[in-house]
Design a protein that fits this description.
Chain A is mostly helical. Chain A is about 75% helix and about 0% strand. Chain A is built from 24 helices and 2 strands. The longest helix of chain A has about 45 residues. Chain B contains 8 helices and 18 strands. In chain B, helix 4 runs parallel beside helix 5. The model of chain B has no long low-confidence stretch (mean pLDDT about 90). The chains are: A mainly alpha, B alpha+beta. The interface between A and B is medium-sized, with 27 and 31 residues.
Chain lengths: ~550, ~325
């Protein structure tokens, strides 16, 4: 499973600021950069389009009938159940946490404000390994229980991680920061005046929160939730490890075990429909958020002090979320890695493969992102198409895109040998993550006033010269962040890597997955921790960005 | 039933700075009191103290003889029945105009609240906009919804924080007159926080002038305008010329040493018979009046005179002072 830690969340964090509406110009007005932008859009779109075509053109075959009749219900039930339960877990924790952190003061509040983002660093499969170990029969929690009570393992019931609720719990514990971030941003930026108006009209603090604050923040919260749920739907590693059948799990299995791309493509289409539903929900709620900002006046957020027991309870609440999503699983893995003492397994080779594969994927995505960001500067329909393709592909599970690439390779008569799989994997990484890399560049360009470009043009610069000498240097100022995010995302991606990697090329993610499924957790711990460590970099970047842009705390009317 | 809302010696400090400093102010029922002052004068803070959005450090806020705020307790804003109108109106974006107005009518029950909200919208001429969301309303309409919302629960007092400054200047005075009519009709104490002296004089019955957190002067608008207690108060209510004793052109006025002459711009009268002559440096049309920049005895003066009398730039004219609009204060 992959998690776009840095960018999408950062963009959502900025969400309540007036949305920039980009209108299509009435005439088709082609520009020099459009051909390149169109090519970028097509490169990104091909894998998913070929999956759709494969589902229609290739017949289902026997494997499909078998899957449809015996596995469809468990797959669909597993995915839907996990989505629903994960949504519940995330809302129940993240919304109150965001409310506490923005509107109240309690011990440790400034630290929790950013600590609560850290769980984004560890991919779902890493959390699944750690939590299954923590909660297992031989794990520290059950051992402690037996020691304290004197029971034996058969005397009591203990919640199992290897179940659908367990999967939902694990994924929610790593993905709740999406909801936390958007809810927090919504609470920070909404007019405190509305809250005060409600109080002056006789509403109690609780009624004010329920009927004024929450409805105003609902679109932002829904957007964050939709994003997190896309990641839940895309998860393969955690579902496989915990033995929960889901659609994504089914796609990879239909390909790997049955060798049936057609059946896999049909499953992928069903998953795509779910994801598209989530994308539409996110777009829809974000559109409403833009139009609903009737209040522009911000007042310094004056936090209510939570004294005594209440303050400590609030701190405990936040600590619990952080502990579940990061502290406990990561320390468990560190413990397992150290406990093993001996040199458990070589990671050098895997590290090298990871650098090559994630590096080439990031490089390819970087070029596409740069093209799209620069093309976006001239607001033509082609540039809009390229951006839309990139942001749509971002929502599509890696397993589906990998399947699309396999279909294309199959159609061309290519096999996964030599340089082919490396290129194919770079292509899939680029297809999925370009939007993440383009985001910081687009942001850098957006910060530069449009008049800069007009100035260049008024000085006689051609559009090409303007792109080269004005826009490119500005976009590159956001490029280091973009490149970093692309690299980390590619490195965390598991299912696509599993499906497309060159023979015998194990990356860190593949290694971790292989060791974990062999029940060699001590060996899986080190690659898992390395992935998490890499994942921390964009998350820290994001929290830095957050602490430097807080509308409600600097602007005073 | 109709009682005054009073501040009695209230103070409020942020980080050791007294933003409101021992202010006593009585808001009488049925009268609109304008609270006037520059930015940072403590106007909004005083309003928030009245509303119970902040606690007082010293003094008391009372409604009639009921203590709302004191050093030891602050009655929550939702228990005070004091209406608030904000500069940005703070309409609830997810509720229609009618639902916004009905928000504070919850105790009436759903049906009665609907009827009452509709009646308020009708009163302010908004019946056709009842189902519109705030972002679909014009600025003037939002303003009226905000007023209906604040007045509908029959509050014991109403506080307005720069409620008209967000409006289009062309509409401002007509919207203001309509809005304040509804406020006056409610017969409750009303506070209008503003930084615009014209608005304070045109719209309010009383004015109170705040500077550096201290109340400078308070009283009926005309009285404060004509009898300011200090040069600062005079300047707060409109443009003035300020001249130290030595700077006053000979023959214009007798100003004792150590004192200051403060003359309103419309207090400089043109009088061909006057021995004091001034050179007209500039003469600009500003509507009904002309703004003259004069030079007399090496000092520049600004005068507002009826347009038909206005001399041309470059000419010379005799001037004298209107005693009702000229004041002498000890120099600061």
């Amino acid at each position: 499973m992959t998690r776009p830690a840095g960018t999408e969340a950062a963009r959502l964090a900025d969400l309540p600021l007036p949305a920039r509406v980009r209108a299509f110009p009435p005439r088709l007005n082609l520009r020099p950069g459009d051909g390149v932008a169109a090519l970028a859009g097509v490169i990104i779109a091909v894998p998913v389009v070929s999956v759709l075509l494969a589902a229609v053109i290739l017949g289902g075959g026997e494997a499909w009938e078998h899957i449809r009749d015996t596995l469809m219900v468990p797959y669909l039930g597993g995915t839907l159940g996990t989505l629903a339960l994960a949504a519940f877990f995330m809302l129940v924790f993240a919304v109150p946490a965001a409310w506490l952190v923005t509107m109240h003061d309690f011990p440790g509040r400034p630290v929790f404000e950013w600590l609560l983002i850290l769980p984004l660093a560890a991919p779902g499969y890493v959390l699944a390994y750690a939590w299954a170990d923590l909660m297992g029969v031989g794990g520290p929690l059950q051992s402690l229980l037996r020691e304290m009570t004197g029971w034996s393992a058969r005397d009591y019931w203990f919640p199992s991680m290897r179940s659908m609720p367990g999967l939902a719990f694990v994924l929610a514990s790593g993905l709740y920061p999406y909801v936390y971030l958007t809810a927090r941003a919504a609470f920070v930026s909404q007019s405190i005046c509305a809250l005060e108006a409600a109080r002056s009209l006789g509403a109690s603090p609780l009624r004010s929160f329920r009927s004024v604050v929450l409805p105003a923040a609902r679109p932002a919260i829904a957007a964050g939730l939709a994003l997190a749920l896309m990641e839940v739907a895309a998860d393969y590693g955690a579902a496989e490890y915990l033995g929960v059948p889901t659609l994504t799990f089914g796609i990879v299995r239909a390909w790997k075990s049955f060798g049936e791309p057609a059946a896999a493509a049909r499953l992928a289409v069903i998953l795509l429909m779910l994801v598209i539903g989530l994308v539409l929900a996110e777009r829809w709620s974000r559109g409403r958020a833009g139009s609903q900002q009737s209040s522009t006046r911000w007042r310094t957020v004056s936090r209510t002090k939570l004294g005594g027991v209440w303050g400590w309870l609030a701190a405990l609440f936040c600590l619990t979320g952080f502990a579940i999503g990061f502290l406990l699983p990561v320390s468990r893995l560190v413990w397992r890695a150290l406990e093993a003492r001996e040199y458990v397994a070589p990671v050098g080779e895997a590290l090298k493969n990871t650098l090559v594969l994630a590096g080439s994927g990031a490089a390819f995505a970087f070029v596409l992102a740069l093209v799209i960001a620069l093309a976006g500067r001239s607001r033509g329909p082609v540039a809009a198409f390229a951006r839309l393709t990139a942001s749509s592909a971002y929502a599509i599970p890696g397993a589906v895109l990998a399947l699309g690439a396999l279909v294309v390779l199959g159609g061309l008569g290519l096999t996964l040998t030599g340089i082919v799989p490396v290129v194919a994997l770079a292509w899939v990484y680029a297809s999925r993550f370009t939007a993440a890399g383009a985001e910081p560049m687009v942001a850098a360009l957006a910060r530069a006033p449009a008049s800069l470009g007009y100035a260049a043009e008024s000085l006689g610069a051609s559009p090409l010269r303007r792109a080269k000498e004005v826009d490119l240097p500005i976009a590159l100022s956001g490029a280091s962040a973009g490149a970093l995010i692309l690299f980390v995302e590619s490195l965390k991606e598991l299912p696509a890597t599993l499906m497309l990697r060159p023979f015998n090329w194990d990356t860190l993610a593949v290694r971790a997955n292989a060791y974990a499924t062999d029940e060699r957790l001590a060996a899986a711990a080190l690659p898992s921790l390395l992935i998490t460590l890499a994942g921390l970099v964009p998350v820290i970047l994001l929290s830095w960005r957050l602490s430097h842009s807080r509308p409600g705390e600097h602007t005073h009317a | 039933m109709r009682e005054s809302l009073s501040a009695i010696g209230v103070s409020r400090a942020y980080h050791g700075v007294r933003v409101v400093d021992s202010v006593s102010l009585d808001l009488k029922p049925g009268a609109i009191t304008a609270l006037l002052g520059g930015s940072g004068a403590g106007k909004s803070t005083l309003l928030r103290l009245f509303a119970g959005l902040e606690a007082v450090d010293e003094g008391e806020i009372r409604l009639g003889d009921r203590v709302l705020s004191s050093m030891t307790q602050t009655l929550a804003p939702d228990k005070r029945r004091i209406g608030l109108i904000f500069q940005d109106f703070a309409l609830f974006p997810h509720l229609t105009a009618a639902q916004n107005v009905a928000f504070g009518l919850k105790p009436l029950g759903k049906e009665a609240a609907k009827v009452e909200a509709a009646a308020w919208l009708a009163r302010l001429g908004l019946t056709s906009r009842a189902d519109a969301y705030p972002h679909e309303l014009s600025g003037g309409e939002q303003q009226r919804v905000a007023i209906a919302r604040a007045l509908a629960p029959k509050p014991a007092a109403i506080l307005m924080d720069e409620p008209f400054s967000g409006l289009d200047p062309a509409l401002r005075s007509s919207v203001r007159d309509e809005a304040l009519e509804a406020v006056r009709a409610a017969g409750i104490p009303a506070l209008l926080v503003t930084h615009d002296p014209v608005e304070a004089l045109e719209a309010a019955d009383h004015v109170a002038i705040l500077k550096g957190g201290k109340l400078q002067q308070e009283g009926p608008a005309a009285e404060v305008y004509l009898h300011p207690a200090s040069a600062d108060v005079a300047a707060a209510l409109g443009p003035v010329n300020r001249l130290r004793a030595g700077e006053v052109p000979a023959g214009l006025a007798e100003v004792p040493a150590g004192s200051e002459l403060v003359v309103r711009t419309e207090g400089i009268l043109l009088d061909a018979a006057s021995p004091v002559k001034a050179k007209v440096l500039a003469s600009q049309v500003t509507g009904a009046m002309n703004r003259l920049v004069l030079e007399a005895g090496g000092r520049r003066l600004v005068a507002m005179v009826p347009r038909c009398d206005a001399p041309q730039a470059g000419s010379e004219t005799g001037i004298r002072l209107d005693p009702a609009l000229s004041f002498i204060f000890p120099s600061a």
